[in-house]
Every structure is written in C-alpha cells, then in structure tokens.
Amino acid sequence: MSSVEWPAKEIHISAPGKVILHGEHAVVYGKAAIAASLNVRCFLKLKVMSDSNISLCLPDVNINTQMSVLSIKEQLENFMDAGSIKDPSGATDDIVLKIKKFAGIDPENKETKNLAIVAFLYLYSNIFHEKGEYPAMSISMKSDLPVGAGLGSSAAFSVSLAAAFLELAGFIESQKLEDEGLSWKPEDKTVINKWAFIGEKIIHGRPSGIDNAISTYGGALKMQSGTITAFEKMPTLSVMLVNTQVPRSTMTLVAGVRQKHNLYQDIMDPILNAVEAISKRAEDIYKSSISPEHYKTLGELMELNHNLLNAMGVGHPTLDQIVAVTKKHGFHSKLTGAGGGGCAFVLVPPSSSDDSIESLKTELTDLGYQVWKKISVGGPGVLREL
Fold it and tell me: Is 211 part of the annotated catalytic residue set?
C-alpha cells in the first residue's frame, strides 16, 4: 500500500450531460456541430482508503466490483504507456484486450458498462503510474442522466474520473473561480478533456470528442474537424427532454453510418453537407438576440436535421412518433446524440404556455416515454463539489 500522504481524502466531482443541438454524426466527418451543456449532472465521489483495494460502484449500470491495487500494478503497469500527463495518447487495441483479460471481460464484449471498467482501469493505471504511487480508493457515481440515451452520461463519467484522478495526483489544482464554485483554470481543463476523450474512445470507439468537451467546459460550443470554439454568449434556451427508453450502442450506430458512407459516399456527402448547413444557420441565430421568428426558424431547422439523420439510418419509430406528437402540440423536436432510440429534445420557446407544455408532457408520458420538462441548457462544465 502507498505511503504517500494524499492531499485529499475525499474528492467530489460533478459534470453535466449534453444535448447536441445540431450536427450529430456529421461532426465525425469534419462537419460543424453545436452542443450545449444541460443542468442535469452526474456526481462522482472518490474516497482514499486505508486498505489495498479499489472498489468501483456504478449503480446506474449495475456495476459493483473490487480489485486489488497490487494486482493492477503487477499485471497492468508494464502495458501502460499513455505518453505525458499534458499530452496523453489513447489505448491501443492490444492494451484494451489486456485490460479486458485482467478484468475478466470477454474480448468480444462491447457493452458500454464493461468498457467503462476498461476506461476506468486505463485512466487509473496511467495517471497514477505518472505519479509513481497507486492509491487504494472507492469510487462511486450516481447519474441524474439516463444512461445510454444520447445525453452524454459516459462522457460525464470519463470527465469526472479524469478530473478526480488528476486532482488527487496533484497534476491539476481546483480553485475558486468567479460564478463557478470550485473549478480549474483553462489549461487544466484542457488536460481533463484530453484524458476524458481517451476514456470516451475506449467506450465508444471513434467518437467526435464533442461530448467530453461540452461536459468539461460547459456552456455551448461548436466543434469542427476536432477544433472546439466556445460561444462567448449562448442565449438562454429551455428544452423538454424525452427519453424513448430504447437502448442503443453509439459505437454500432457510428459504425453503421461509416459503412454507408464507404458504400455510398456520393450520396452521403450531400446529406452531411446539408446537416452542416443547418448547424451554420443555427449558429448565426444563437449569436444574435433571438426573436420569436428565430424560434420558428430553429424549429424548422431541427425538423430538417431530424429527417436527414433518418436518411443516414440512425432514426427510430419512437423518435419519429415524438416528433409527430410534439408538432401536433405546436412544438418542434429532433433526436439528439447517436439516435437509434435514446433521447429527443423539444424546443420550448419562452412564449409557450404552461398548459401547452403540460399537455405535451402528459401525452408523451402516456405513450410510455420518460419526460423532463423545461430543462435549461448552457450551464457550467465539470466542477469540484464542496
């Protein structure tokens, strides 16, 4: 067991979910996408223990496992080579297989919850390998986000893990920042985001990086060709989140779009270009003072975006039903995230009456969907909780 005196015995981290407003899937091909954080968060608790074990408890995905620090050090240390703390590199397929073998996970198993264990072990082993000491700890995480629904729960997990490990190891230091509580300087958030992206790649294969970026930085941002541009000011938006409760795999859906792109590039490229055009139109609106007419335009852009995602093959009958029901009530909606089930969001203009919002929620709930009404977007990114 380590003799290091760790600077904190407990670290509490929270990170937000996200909603992709425009551009999902197209962003993987270098097109512009716009995302914003949600005021719905995941909460992680790290507690340094006096024994020689690590426990990982993720009740939302039925994970409660324990392993010894010594076994991690003996069996994984020689495989860990993620580069430097400030510029880490991702896990190779060979390392992922070795971690799966260590954790008793079938090499062919691509379940998100099992890949979350792999991501946990990769980040833990590499970050504390750089520190030179491996602390015993318990990690627990509870999410206010539905898991596997396209709202960035895995990114919030990876961001929270990275922030907690880097903070405990002393590579970053949280501080009181104006209007944000305890957070980190921009250069420290860059490091958090890089490690979180590695976790996301382990879990999802070839993600764009937009989920971990929005969970790290908060607010709203545009991502294009790997470049993140934060919005200086994002207008206050309210959305209704609707969870189809249909599970799906982001990795599988992203791979399916890639297969279509490989087979029908001459057809898929115009679709992706059209999605990007929607993102750019919407960006112009977000940078202005939004008028009632702008909300009408945003709604129409959302429906166009949804139909183009259907053309890519990532739609689902439940999502189409949500779009139809919301339109009947005078609202506009689209799928968000990978599609294939998961979540949709409904734009709620400030002029919307409480009765119309409640009526829509009632019908969607009666159809079996899980609904959160009037969720705000654009809040803070990862925070250290007191």
Answer: yes
